Give the backbone structure.
Amino acid sequence: MDTKVKRDFFKFLRSRKYFTLLVAIMTTAAVFSVVYGVSTPRRYPLRVGERSRWDISAPFEMENRIQSERYAEEAARAAPRVYVRDPDLSAAIVARAETFINVITQEHNHYRDSVMQAEPALSGADLQNLRDETVTKLCDQAIIFRVAISREEAMSIITDVSRAELDSFFGEYLAKIRDLAENTDITADNYNDYVASLWRSIQQTMYANQNLKNVASLYAQSALNVNVVIDDEQTKLAQDRIREQNLERKIIIPRGKRIISVDEVVTSSQYQLLDEYGLIEDGELDVEQLVKVLFVLFGIAVLFHIYLSSIGMELLESNSQVLQLGCIIVVVLTVCRFLYPVHPLAMPIYIAPILIAYLINTRVALVINIYILSVLSLFAGIDVKTMLFFIIGGALSAIMMMNASTRARFTLVAFSLSTTCVFLFIALSNDIMNPSNYMLDAAILFVTCIASSFLSMGLVALMESLFNTATPLRLTELSSGNTPLLRRLSFEAPGTHHHSLMVGYMAETAALAIGANPFIAKAGAYYHDVGKLASPSYYAENQYGVNPHDQTEPEESARIIISHTRAGVELCEKSKLPKQVVNIVREHHGDTVLAFFYNKAIKQRGEENVLAEAFRYPGPRPGSREAALVMIADSCEAAVRSSEHKDEAKIAEWVRKIIQSKAEDGQLEFCMISMRDMQIIEQNYVRVLTGFYHTRVQYPDDPMQIGQYPAGLLEAGATAPALAPAPMPADPLVAPAVPSVQSAAATAPVSVAALPTAAAAVPMATTGSAAPSVYVTDTAPVAVATTVPMTAPASIAVPTPAFTQASVPTPALTQANAPTPSLTQASAPIAMPAAPAGDAPGSVAGNTP
């Protein structure tokens, strides 16, 4: 393959868009292999009537549809029938009752009429025969209506009941039967109830003969009959409704419940159940399940890609972060796949949001947490309650890991997450008053949360090493000053090191103000000039009186200066610094022109003979807000340092001009810096530079010109001494000798040497005589000698000199004809203001005594 084609192909693969697509495809394929293996249960070669060689349990929660349908059918068959009243049946009941009443009435009236008509000529024997004949006929007629009347009851009815009484009783009796037949539904189920009701109403009649009541009561059971018929259509509708209601109450086989035991004969219903859920081996690929899993995973991936695109793919700053994201998803899902059979709450889902929030971005962590839970639902069957506190716990852990810069944050997340999830789990428990039902699950959840946090802390170090990730913790360690590059910079180019520290502080404060990453800005600023280690003496901040550019052509000087960005990138990449830091080193000058040497060349040879490109940095321009902050801070700090006037107005003017010039030159067009951000950056840089270069009190050579001393330095009656500066020793680490104190008449100077011990200037306390304040600098070991004239025997308190390389004993002060005073350690340390950067180490700053 042609070299150019290879180069273009690999360039194509390294592009963010296609690299992200490639990682997404690979991640989806890996997730599919994990999910499909779990979501597709094992199949068994079984047949009806064979003995099973396996214990087969439900691989997931299953519905026993066969059993559910059987129970629903039984419930439908047992449903009550729907009846409708038949008018013909009601009329038949009334007609039958009327016939029965007519039979009794006719026999009763026939007997009465016969007796009344033949009574004068009727003998006792004939009357008895008539009675017997009527009673016999009445009993026989009653038998036809299935009523067994005794001869005594029949005799009483025909002899003791009057015609009017009989008509009144049977009229009421017939009305009750008609009401029941026409206005009520008499079924086989309520038939006996209506018979009993009619019997009670007959017996409660007050005026009727008791034998007549008995006969009517006996007829009540045969008088009433069923007056309804089954409505087949309505009955079927009712049965269908009951069948549907029972089908909604599904018979569920919980996950893990045994379906078939070893050596158990497989029944038809068991085989149908296993076959319905694809547990019977038929030698064919389960295409339906395959398509289902692929479709779900593809749909989830598309939805989350759309969401990430909508919130900005810039949240994934590099291909390395894209690859990290894919690895975290696959690893977490794989671990959950093996721990889910142990217990659903043992799945360490929280590892993903913790790692992603710490290594990449909090918003991405929240989205990926939902993605992982969605995928887990394919094989884990997570219920709504468990899904709820998994979502809440993941969101809490991701938010708490935002901008974490210490390992203690992982401990805080561990206990906060475990406490929150356990309390939420208990609150959502169905049986909160019975702790024994959920304490084991709560304990498992607590351990899972703790383990997830501490496992994440261990995985962070691994991810940092594998992917060279710029985490807040790693950036903090890189900015500590203990790395080999920064130690070299402090030793070999101290001026550049001090400049880098200033730029780092400026960039950090501005990043916090505009919402950029302060850790990247600070670390990038600390390393932005490490390329100057190649030739530190060619840069003004490291020069001490000799400027090699005076004997160098402008183009060569420019080449040396410009090369420090390339050299810095090489040093940083060799030290395996994060890509974000390396980018700042590469971009902090953009493609600006080195104006000093460019103008110098023009002055020497004319503008038409000078190529501007020879004096231009190779770029690229800053591609992030952090790189832009370092670029502006670098120029502002250098400009203010070189300026003769460092008042606030001048500093503000410098900062404003530099920001404006960078913007007009197009250096800030790719870094998403807004006008509002520029105003905030200007305010912060002016504040920091003004604070660092604040004006100080100018001390005269003769302190007596001040007119007074600080309170407490002069005792009553003492004369203010004159201060004569002592010459500096040849070796700044060796203190000068301290001369002795002479008599009061002839005052002799006393030399006191001290080394820096504090950052604040503290006056030296004396006893018995006034003495001037003594100051030293904290920038390097310095020996400062002053003389203190004494006018009277006194004990003077001075700090004991401390030296780095040479130790000098504390000298004794003597006086002629007087006791030798002793030196005592002063209670307060002595210090001088720090020397401005650029001074040689060990020199006294400015004209400070």
